[in-house]
Amino acid sequence: MGSASYKVKVPGSLMLFGEHAVLHSKLAMVAAIDRYIEVTLTLRSDRLINIVSPNFGEHSLLLDKFKISKRYSYVLMAIKQYLPQIKCGFDLTIAAEFSSTIGFGSSAAVTVATLAVLERWLVGGVLGRHKLYRLALRVIRSIQGFGSGADVAASVFGGVIAYKMAPTLICKLNVKPPLVAIYSGKKVATAKVVEIVEKKRQKMPRVFAALYQAMDLCTRRVIAAINKKNYLLVGQLMDVHQGLQDALGVSNSVLSALIFSLRNMSGIYGAKISGAGLGDCIIGLGKVRRKIFPQNEEQKKNGVKQFDVNVSSRGIIYL
Ligand code: MEV
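^ thats the input. predicted complex w/ (R)-mevalonate below
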């Protein structure tokens, strides 16, 4: 008889609106996408915790010498939440359909997935979605020091979500906008970008408050427009929102060049940075008919990559 095992699949996510402003309790919009992380927990007869993923390699530790290391920090912090209940070792296999450097919310997705398999094993049931969201957000904040939880909400609930951090608002919208994501070839840690923005905000708090307020207004307008499938208006608001992100100082020449060329493509209504900025992905509303990016040798060399993503209407899936 094989060892008992528990498996879940969790979607990654893309921020659509409200980046940075969301950390100041403004409205944001986030989408779960059809790129998933699958986590399988298989019980062992010894006391070894063995974490394996093709991207990050193997990390083994004894249950009795449990400690959080930098590699797999989110996974280990998720395990720590259940430590008193864990009586034997296990293998935790992480299979991701996307790299952790691309900006598809991998930390949130892997945290949600790890907590969910542990709950299944140790408590025997399925953690309610709001509880899972709160627990995963706590894990992320204890590692990163902050986090709006928008990516966590997308991974747990799926679909396109109107989101507010405090007071918490998670409102799933019944829409599936067409999206394309272009990876810029470079990853800058979200924590680093948030720190840069925060330093600027402290120098001009009233200006930044006005920018965040304008982002909030944009997102509000987008919710009304997207519900009516008015993509023309949503695209225009995307461009306006990009202007505000630029004003925060999170754009650069590479991202701007990608955004302007994507906006020129037929079938694209608007384009902007997705996520913290200074790297990661840009997104466009609409579909391009074929693989356009990388457009030249330089982009190819720099690792620019096009992802034709779809909204995943499902959040966490128990397999
Ligand atoms: C990062 O994808 C978006 C930020 O608003 C941070 C967060 O929401 O936690 C910059």
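The mean pLDDT is 96.
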